[in-house]
């Protein structure tokens, strides 16, 4: 590793700064440390140094960097030409003290007010089992209710999980999504920071959701959270994630990795509504391994970003395993939402369901990109895929790229897809009942999304409807 003084010009002063104000940042930007632009070995070493990581993690990061350089960017999918790494800050550390705080009042007022506008503390007090809040590259707050701590539930930021549960962390980290998997997984593996580490012990049912919220504030920033979720045998819980960022004229970059292990008989749900501003490239790898008689459910909502590439993946590796993926994409002017799902049946009597809903308007483009793969020996496997696209005007575009590979003759696989436009008669009927044209269109869109929205907890279904209304503004005229 490079000499500490080479990593940061003020590194020699760090020990003397340990007793300074806990948070050295404000809105607008004022950070404890901000890396130089671009992805390099030096930046990776800076990240590992500031986090005080074990040598094996630094070695892992550097190996992932080499893999990324060899792989290069994918040559399929949306156009990524405007995503220039040389313009991106890959690590922005808001606070001088590593780790999260236990009290909401300890977060700087400006950041606290931003999260309060998003409803995070209110949700924690009323309906959530635990809350995590990430600002830029680091988690700044993480809290789990005492009743779940007593049952052995672990809900930490990923950096703290590495430190406090090293054996459990090392056993599962990068086993579901290794850096060799794809280019952006390799980039994330090299520079990951923050995210959630969740472990629910055997037989424990967490009756209310765990939630993390990710906020980008700086211009030209990259955020690379790494979330690791482990459901022990017979456990049951729901993890919810939300994301947002302010709008800038230049591009930002979000590339998270989510790894989920559903052990025998567990029931895990992961829901996300991502509302990034339209200058963010959102390129994410999400994958779950589902063991015998376990169940995994994804609900994936994409209503923001400039470009999205996100395909929640479920590997059904144990007999009787089940997977569900519900996907929403809303593309407006200047957006390309390339979303979808992947399901791999690798064991007998496994079942899966994919429902994809996409909406495009004013030149926006949505794409469904999916894979259903039935391995030889996965006898009795059953899968059904439904892809529905709604075009709101003549300039909108939608594409479907389904791929089905069946290597087991006893499998049952269904696929159906529809593309439709707003029905003028429906709009006219609703307008005769007193609705304005824009209200009528929004009501039809909400009805189109209802099969997915009804799977959300009430508070989040309300949020989804509000975001849809915001996206629909200006649809008339």
Beta-strand percentage range: 25-35%
* Shape, principal axes of CA atoms: globular
Report the total helices: 12
Separation of the first and last Cα atoms? 59 Å
Class per helix and strand makeup: alpha/beta
How would you state the average pLDDT, rounded?
81
Could you estimate the helical fraction of the residues in percent?
Answer: 10-25%
Strand elements, count: 24
Radius of gyration: 22 Å
Contiguous low-pLDDT stretches (5 residues minimum) are 1-29, 124-129, 136-140
Keywords:
477 residues, 2 domains, twelve-stranded mixed sheet, ten-stranded mixed sheet, disordered N terminus
Architecture overview:
There is one protein chain. By secondary structure, the protein is an alpha/beta fold. The protein folds into two domains: 4-310, no CATH class; 424-477, no CATH class. The protein has twelve helices and 24 strands. The strands form three sheets. Strands 5, 6, 8, 9, 11, 12, 14, 16, 17, 19, 21 and 23 form a twelve-stranded mixed sheet that branches. Strands 4-3-7-10-13-15-18-20-22-24 form a ten-stranded mixed sheet. It has a two-stranded antiparallel sheet with strand order 1-2. Strand 3 (130-135) and strand 4 form a beta hairpin. Helix 3 (55-71) runs antiparallel to helix 9 (183-191) and helix 10 (424-432) packs across helix 11 (437-453). The longest helix has 17 residues, at 55-71. The protein is globular and about 65 Å long. Mean pLDDT is 81; it is low at 1-29, 124-129 and 136-140.
């Amino acid at each position: 590793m490079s000499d500490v003084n080479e990593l940061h010009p003020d590194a020699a002063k760090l020990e003397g700064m340990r007793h300074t104000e806990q948070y050295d940042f404000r809105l607008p930007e004022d950070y404890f440390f901000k890396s130089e632009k671009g992805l390099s070995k030096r930046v990776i070493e800076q990240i590992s140094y500031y986090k005080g990581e074990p040598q094996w993690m630094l070695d892992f990061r550097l190996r992932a960097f080499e893999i990324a350089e060899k792989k290069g960017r994918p040559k399929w999918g949306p156009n990524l030409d405007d995503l220039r790494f040389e313009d991106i800050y890959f690590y922005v550390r808001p606070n001088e003290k590593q780790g999260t705080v236990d009290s909401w009042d300890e977060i700087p007022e400006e950041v606290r007010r931003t999260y309060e506008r998003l409803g995070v503390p209110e949700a924690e007090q009323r309906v959530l089992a635990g809350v995590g809040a990430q600002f830029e590259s680091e988690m700044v707050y993480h809290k789990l209710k005492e009743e779940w701590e007593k049952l052995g539930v672990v809900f930490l930021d990923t950096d703290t999980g590495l430190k406090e549960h090293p054996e459990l962390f090392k056993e599962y980290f990068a086993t579901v999504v290794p850096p060799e998997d794809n280019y952006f997984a390799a980039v994330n593996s090299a520079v990951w920071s923050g995210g959630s580490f969740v472990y629910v012990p055997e037989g424990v049912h967490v009756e209310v959701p765990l939630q993390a919220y990710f906020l980008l504030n700086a211009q030209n920033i990259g955020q690379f959270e790494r979330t690791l979720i482990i459901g022990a045998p017979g456990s049951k819980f729901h993890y919810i994630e939300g994301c947002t960022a302010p709008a800038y004229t230049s591009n930002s970059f979000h590339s998270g990795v989510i790894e989920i292990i559903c052990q025998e008989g567990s029931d895990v749900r992961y829901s996300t509504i991502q509302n990034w501003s339209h200058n963010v490239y959102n390129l994410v790898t999400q994958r779950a391994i589902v063991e015998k008689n376990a169940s995994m459910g994804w609900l994936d909502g994409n209503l923001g970003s400039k470009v999205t590439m996100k395909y929640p993946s479920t590997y059904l590796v144990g007999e009787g395993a089940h997977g569900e993926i519900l996907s929403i994409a809303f593309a407006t002017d200047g957006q390309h939402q390339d979303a979808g799902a992947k399901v791999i049946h690798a064991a007998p009597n496994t079942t899966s369901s994919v429902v994809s809903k996409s909406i495009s308007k004013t030149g926006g483009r949505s794409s469904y990109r999916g894979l259903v793969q039935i391995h030889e020996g996965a006898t009795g496997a059953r899968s059904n895929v439904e892809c529905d696209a709604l075009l709101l005007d003549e300039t909108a575009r939608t594409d479907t790229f389904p791929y089905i590979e069946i290597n087991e003759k006893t499998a049952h696989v269904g696929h159906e897809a529809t593309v439709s436009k707003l029905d003028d008669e429906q709009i006219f009927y609703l307008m005769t009942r007193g609705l304005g044209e824009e209200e009528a269109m929004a009501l039809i869109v909400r009805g189109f999304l209802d099969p997915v929205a009804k799977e959300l907890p009430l508070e989040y279904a309300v949020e989804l409807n509000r975001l849809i209304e915001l996206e629909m503004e200006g649809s008339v005229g």
